[in-house]
Amino acid sequence: MQSFSMADEEEYDSNHHVHKVLAKVEEGDATIACWEPGQTSPNHCHPHASEIYFCFKGGGIMRTADQTVDVSAGSFTYHPPGEVHEFINGDKRTILFRVRYGGDKVSRHFSWDEKPDWVQKPEDAAYFASLEKSCLEKVKNL
After folding, report:
1. Would you say residue 12 has pLDDT above 80?
2. Which residues, at least 6 apart from 28, have a Cβ–Cβ distance to it below 8 Å?
3. How many domains does the chain have?
4. In this structure, what CATH number is given to the domain that contains residue 89?
């Protein structure tokens, strides 16, 4: 058994949300993600792993190509493998507890609205270029 205190693990950075891996198991990992007001994640997916976010404190908006949901303390979202999503933090510090499980945990990044100078890596561009046209059109609409 491993035990953690979210309050003891929280750590913030004004330049980028902070992800800290708390535990690794054969099929996944558990992390804490700490967000300053207004920070966002890139539009990304994990092609071979599922991802669950539980909001411990604060809140914001989770977006996919199909829906946008409000995230608040006590709520959680589930993303199946390959679902492109982004988190947009609200006006307070937020702590998300994240669990990824399944296959390879690699992230593929599509875009990052908050970072105008961000450049997509060639391997991420190749991944999204390999998607069926209908899937790619949905991602472009995020």
Report:
1. yes
2. 49, 99, 100, 101, 102, 105
3. 1
4. 2.60.120.10
